[in-house]
UniProtKB/TrEMBL annotation:
<dbReference type="GO" id="GO:0004674">
    <property type="term" value="F:protein serine/threonine kinase activity"/>
</dbReference>
<keyword id="KW-0808">Transferase</keyword>
<keyword id="KW-0418">Kinase</keyword>
<dbReference type="InterPro" id="IPR051681">
    <property type="entry name" value="Ser/Thr_Kinases-Pseudokinases"/>
</dbReference>
<dbReference type="InterPro" id="IPR000719">
    <property type="entry name" value="Prot_kinase_dom"/>
</dbReference>
<dbReference type="Pfam" id="PF00069">
    <property type="entry name" value="Pkinase"/>
</dbReference>
<dbReference type="InterPro" id="IPR011009">
    <property type="entry name" value="Kinase-like_dom_sf"/>
</dbReference>
<dbReference type="GO" id="GO:0005524">
    <property type="term" value="F:ATP binding"/>
</dbReference>
<feature type="domain" description="Protein kinase">
    <location>
        <begin position="130"/>
        <end position="413"/>
    </location>
</feature>
<protein>
    <submittedName>
        <fullName>Kinase-like protein</fullName>
    </submittedName>
</protein>
<dbReference type="InterPro" id="IPR008271">
    <property type="entry name" value="Ser/Thr_kinase_AS"/>
</dbReference>
Length: 478
């Protein structure tokens, strides 16, 4: 039957669709009527009772009413179609305007965020860095700043940028030569406890310098090992940090072509990770020596006197035209001084001395230096005292090499009853007065500095009789 087999109409989208659907409704209604008439003339019509005929008539009327409703609905849809299309375009235009406004706000916000990273920009091949004006901490032959690196195809990230420091035109070529030499050494080093050189770049605009070095920025609030361990909350990480430093130094010394750092100290050790899982990494290789077939070494040897080996200081004073020779043994002394600095939570080791007094001490008789170091080391745990004392031997030949030092260090602190598995504050309580002047262990005497200095003065007075020529060397600063 035609009406039963008619296709289901689809939703109209244009005026023509509406007209076609209305026409279809009329055709279907007429088909139903024809089907009913055919039913009445069927050969078996006589057998149908009046109730059946009435039922079919009711079905046809109901179907006709439903088709009339559908026709009316399609008629209204046809009338509303132009208005609906107009409203749709208006909404689309408004949405487009809103998207444009949001895009402009996003661009403005991004620009403000970029401004927060700094207003100064240095561009170079492959990217740029953005940073704030002002001086950063000084490294060897350069100034270090936090910058935001924008490399092509990558998200911006914080980096440490080192710029060469040229104080006057006469040192221009020499400073740049040192700067390139540092990069040459640094880019060869790849170790978990040595910071990575990302690249050496030549800026398009040389306003801020002709060269710059980029390396990862320490991603925590402390930055350096010195600052990290001065916070008492981090004291349990003391041995971990020193172990990392020793691992990095051993890597340098046992590199296929050994590298001597030349300026090892707490502020040249960066701390990555968080307070519970710190990772210490050596940085700043401006005073390093690379023992390749073509030796690359710094013009200046040794850094600050508080971390510099006696033989380097003696060379400076004895032969002003010669700067001495950087050696593995000199690095071991610097490690001992750095370990002492970090163990005692001080900004510099041997903090009761001024730098001039430290210089005088280090050019004194080896016996006096050894006795002075022995007295200083009374304030660190006895378990590691012997190892640090060996590092601070006035005689370079008495200092251990990095490999044997690392082995003994790890065996000592990692044995089942070793201090690595003890609370650091508990370890320090074993250090008696007045030696515990950096780590107060008694509420009655929160700072044993005065009593320690009194004891140290007495020790120095006693030494004056045996080392009369060094009277000024062993005086204590006020």
């Amino acid at each position: 039957m035609a009406a039963i087999n008619a296709p289901t109409p689809t939703r109209p989208t244009t005026r023509q669709d509406v007209k076609e659907l209305q026409k279809g409704c009329d055709v279907e209604l007429e088909a139903v009527r024809e089907d009913f008439q055919a039913l009445l003339t069927h050969s078996g019509i006589e057998m149908l009772d009046q109730r059946t005929l009435t039922s079919h008539q009711d079905d046809i009327e109901a179907l006709a009413l439903e088709l009339a409703k559908i026709r009316k609905r399609y008629k209204w849809q046809g009338a509303l179609l132009p208005w609906s299309q107009q409203k749709h375009w208006a909404q689309a235009s408004e949405t487009h305007r809103e998207i444009g406004a949001v895009g402009r706000r996003v661009a403005t916000t991004q620009e403000r965020l970029e401004q927060l990273k700094g207003k100064l920009v240095i561009r170079f091949q492959g990217g740029s860095v953005r940073f704030h004006e002002g001086r950063g901490p000084a490294g060897s032959f350069g100034e270090v700043k936090k910058v935001w690196l924008h490399a092509e195809g990558e998200q911006s990230r914080p980096m440490a940028m080192k710029l060469p420091t040229i104080r006057h035109s006469g040192e221009h070529d020499d400073v740049l030569r040192r700067f390139r030499r540092e990069a040459t050494i640094w880019r060869l080093l790849h170790h978990n406890h040595v910071n990575t050189l990302w690249d050496l770049k030549e800026p398009e605009d040389t306003t801020h310098g002709e060269l710059l070095m980029l390396s990862p920025w320490a991603d925590n609030e402390y930055g350096t090992a010195t600052a990290f361990l001065q916070d008492k909350e981090n004291c349990n990480q003391t041995l971990k940090v020193i172990s990392d430093i020793l691992s990095g130094l051993d890597y340098l010394h046992r590199h296929s072509f050994p590298v001597y750092h030349g300026d090892l100290k707490g502020n040249n050790v960066l701390i990555f990770g968080d307070s519970q899982n710190p990772v210490a990494k050596l940085t700043d290789f401006g005073l390093s020596k690379y023992c390749a077939p073509i030796v690359l070494s710094a013009t200046l040897v040794g850094g600050n006197s508080f971390w510099t080996a006696p033989e380097i200081i003696v060379a400076r004073y004895s032969h002003p035209q010669s700067t001495g020779t950087l050696t593995a043994q000199a690095d071991i002394w610097a490690f001992g001084a750095t370990a002492f600095e970090l163990l005692t939570r001080s900004e510099i080791p041997f903090r009761d001395c001024k730098q001039t007094e430290m210089n005088k001490l280090l050019v004194s008789a080896p016996g006096l230096i050894d006795e002075e170091m022995t007295d200083y080391l009374q304030c660190i745990p006895v378990e590691i005292r012997g190892m640090i004392k060996a590092c601070l031997s006035a005689d370079p030949s008495g200092r251990p090499d990095s490999q044997s030092l690392k082995r003994v260090w790890h065996l000592t602190i990692s044995q089942p009853s070793g201090i690595r598995f003890q609370e650091w504050t508990e370890v320090l309580t074993k250090i008696s007065e007045p030696y515990c002047h950096y780590y107060p262990t008694s509420s009655k005497n929160p700072d044993g500095w005065s009593s320690w200095r009194m004891w140290m003065n007495e020790r120095r007075e006693e030494r004056r009789g045996r080392y009369p020529k060094v009277k000024r060397v062993i005086s204590v600063s006020s």
